[in-house]
Amino acid sequence: MSGLFGLFARFVKIAGWTLLQTIQRNIVSVKRSWLFSPATQPDAWKVIARRTYLYSSRIFRPRITDVDPVPLIVMAHGGGFVMNNPSADDLLARFLADNCNCVVVSIDYRKAPRYRFPAAYEDVVESILDLLGDGANDLSIDPNKVILCGSSAGGNLVLAAAQDSRLRRKLLGIVALYPVANMVPTAEQQMATRPDPNIPDFLEDKWDDVLDLYVGTTDVLTLQDPRLSPTNFKERDDLPKHIFMLGCEHDMLCHEAKVMAEKLIDASATQKEQDANGQQVGGVRWMLVEGQTHAFDHFATTRPRGNEETRVRDRESMYHNIAQWLRDVFGTV
Fold first, then answer.
1. 119, 181, 261, 262 from 268: Cα distances, Å
2. Contact status, residue 226 vs residue 232, Cβ threshold 8 Å
């Protein structure tokens, strides 16, 4: 009887997440439509040849450019490996295309619970390979200036995909916003690393579901796989030279992201570059967004009145920091 109850409970959980997934995707699509977000619309759409079942990739070209070919940023959205579609990142994609004089392509990937690991990972790798292969001519991109960008689950996927042997030598850099760097620590262990336990983190109650729906196990050996926990990279050269990792102070994922950044910095000690003012150019950079929670740039604050202005200000500051870093890195080639 207990076995049947367990199966029923799991069915209900999967059904609930699947329904929520459908509703949320439709909400995001409407929110990012011409009707509600005319200023951040993509310039074109592209179906990935070997992934025709995915949402079309959204292509953002710079409004004004005197460069041909242009750099490429491939962007993977967040959503706990369960939610969202490429339109979720329209605001950042439009901003980077216009401010970094580059093409940004937001890609899709299969979601749990219907598709478990490694489906999403494989989709991201194959989509990037397509964009750098047959798709490169359509985009007029500079193959020497290719950077991956992802937030949350998308940050995990680009950090993992970059370690694939087929991509390793083709990437100039990575930008990872509040990524899932390590899946091994429990929610309780990660929450304990935050500076203020009185500030809630919506990830706390969802972490076990993410592991269950996306991976299907809490086995440590499985979770240590670099495709799940990219912090476990084997060699420094498994990842691009230039990496910018960002964390949010009150995000339970922040500590592990910082640990990964510190590992990369230590492994890159002999690779650091400096400009005329002694500031680091490219290489590995870690940035902490103080006072903010996970994915703050996507969600209006639910904290005390008056913090919405701070959230928007911090989002704009973060975006500008990313754009400046990208321009610096593109300038090294």
1. 31, 18, 10, 10
2. yes
CB under 8 Å to 88, separation ≥6 — which residues?
28, 32, 77, 78, 79, 298
Tokens of 106: 């937001």
CA distance 148 to 76: 8
What is the rounded distance in angstroms from the CA atom of residue 151 to the CA atom of residue 281? Answer: 22
Can you tell me which residue has the tokens 């969600």? 299
- Bin 310: left if φ > 0, else alpha if -120 < ψ < 50, else beta: alpha
Nearest one of 273, 260, 48 to 162, comparing CA atoms: 260
In this prediction, residue 8 has a pLDDT band, given cuts at 50, 70 and 90, of very low
Parallel, antiparallel or unpaired: strands 242-248 and 284-289: parallel
Cα angle: 281, vertex 297, 34; to 5 degrees: 110
- Gap between the Cα atoms of 148 and 268, Å rounded: 19
Question: Which three-class secondary structure state does DSSP give residue 219?
Answer: coil
User: Is pLDDT above 70 for 320?
Assistant: yes
Written as six digits, the tokens of 210 are 């993410």
Dihedral sign (CA 240, 244, 248, 254): positive
pLDDT in tens, 191-239: 999 999 999 999 999 999 999 999 999 999 999 999 999 999 999 999 9
Nearest partner of 75 among 163, 175, 165, 169, judged by Cα:
175
Q: What single-letter DSSP state applies at residue 63?
A: S
What are the distances in angstroms from CA 317 to CA 63, 140, 198, 324, 327?
21, 30, 26, 11, 15
Number of residues in the chain: 333
User: Which residues are bridge partners to 248 per DSSP?
Assistant: 289
Q: What is the pLDDT of residues 48-97, one digit of tens each?
A: 988 999 999 999 999 877 778 999 999 999 999 999 999 999 999 999 99
Is pTM beyond 0.70? Reply is yes
Pick left, alpha or beta for residue 125 (phi over 0 → left; psi -120 to 50 → alpha; otherwise beta). alpha
The token pair at 168 is 């390793």
